[in-house]
Amino acid sequence: MNNYSRYMMNNTFVHKLDPRIKIVSTIIYIVLAFIVTHFITIAILLIPLVVLYIIATHKIKPLLKLMIMPLLIGFFLFFVNIYTMKVEMYDNAGKLTKAYQELKQYYPLPLHLGGSYFITYEIIARTLGLVARVYIMIMATTLMVNTTKPTLLSKALEDLLLPLKLLFIPTHIIVMIIYIALRFIPTLLDEANRIMKAQSSRGVDFKNGKLKDKIKSFTTLIIPLFVTAFAKAEDLSNAMETRGYDPYAKRTHYRIIIPTWRDAIISLIVIGLIVYVALLHNNIINLPNWYIITNFNY
Length: 298
Hints:
Pfam families: CbiQ. It is a multi-pass membrane protein. This is Energy-coupling factor transporter transmembrane protein EcfT. By secondary structure, this protein is mostly helical. About 65% of the residues lie in helices and about 0% in strands. It folds into two domains: about 1-150 and about 255-290, no CATH class; about 170-245. The protein is built from eleven helices and two strands; from the N terminus they run H-H-H-H-H-E-E-H-H-H-H-H-H.
């Protein structure tokens, strides 16, 4: 799990991209994922991410592990939707009725669970839609973090926040805080694993037992982890103070980021996706019926 929150050294096309383009593209991708309302559009967003992730890591197995959290969220939301949603999937301008009548010949939904609770196409579609959206969000952020050095990430954030300096906001201090936080994520994960192993060797069971027992077990992890985190923070502050670090001092930049042709390609792809989603969202494109029935936002 540590690899999902730390930089993975490599020399691929994705690693060489401008970190500013990565940050902006990641934010846009997440926004688009929560705007689109069709599974086919979700697939169009997801396929480039999967390709870039495989190019960057040369692995497929992590893609499956990244699905664990979205599936858990979807599993919980599925039962929440059963409890809260009581209506059938509606007719979208008369175009959905025929398609769903055909589907019902093969899949007898709604399925009555008793009382006023049903499993409907609407519940399944909304749940799968949320799972896909969360998966895209996690994969996009993981890809950005895995392929961007923390130093370049902080430099890119400072460049992107540059307009805020006109409002006299100390962006370099904000970026330094973010950089330190990102730098300590893998360190604290390693420390948590070390503490868990040490406590397990003393007989603490983190996996088995009742909820009350698990809470007590994790208390033996959380308290030492907090103590360690504060100790490391104090050591870092002392080291920075010893070296004369002044957050308000005027400083130059060692790294100058220059965009390349790779960044132009990614930018054009992202712009194309924005235009495509905007046309869909405003109903400018006449969609075929097989595309319309993949709608999951009702």
